Amino acid sequence: MRDKLNFIMGSVMVLITLSMACLFIFTDIMADKMYGSKRTVFIGLLIAYSLYRAYRSYLYFKKPTNTNSD
After folding, report:
1. CB within 8 A of 42, min separation 6: which ones?
2. pLDDT (0 to 100) of residue 51
3. How far apart (Å, rounded) are the C-alpha atoms in residues 46 and 20?
4. What is the DSSP letter of 38?
5. Which end of the chain is more exposed for a tag (fewer CB within 10 A), N or C?
6. Are 7 and 61 in contact (CB under 8 A)?
């Protein structure tokens, strides 16, 4: 049960961070406070974090389960 919850929460985090990155890319939300390279770096960090979480979720999903009990 806990394993499924970790996988679901990781997937939700990927969706949230990618959504936030798209929000910052395609709208001018918080343009008065975050502009120029600060905004670009923040978008890059959001995308990098979502890729990292997606990779961890992928590795966790592909992890072999040991159902053999001897």
Report:
1. 24, 34
2. 95
3. 7
4. H
5. C
6. yes
Residue boundaries of the structural domains of the chain: 2-62
Greatest Cα pair distance, the chain, in angstroms, is 63
Q: Which residues contact 50 (CB under 8 A, 6 or more apart)?
A: 13, 14, 17, 18, 21
Spatial contact of 54 and 14, defined as CB atoms under 8 Å apart: yes
Per-residue pLDDT of 15-38, as tens digits, reads 999 999 999 999 999 889 988 999
- Length of the chain, please? 70
Residue with tokens 């939700």: 12
Query: Which band of pLDDT confidence, cut at 50, 70 and 90, is reported for residue 66?
Result: low
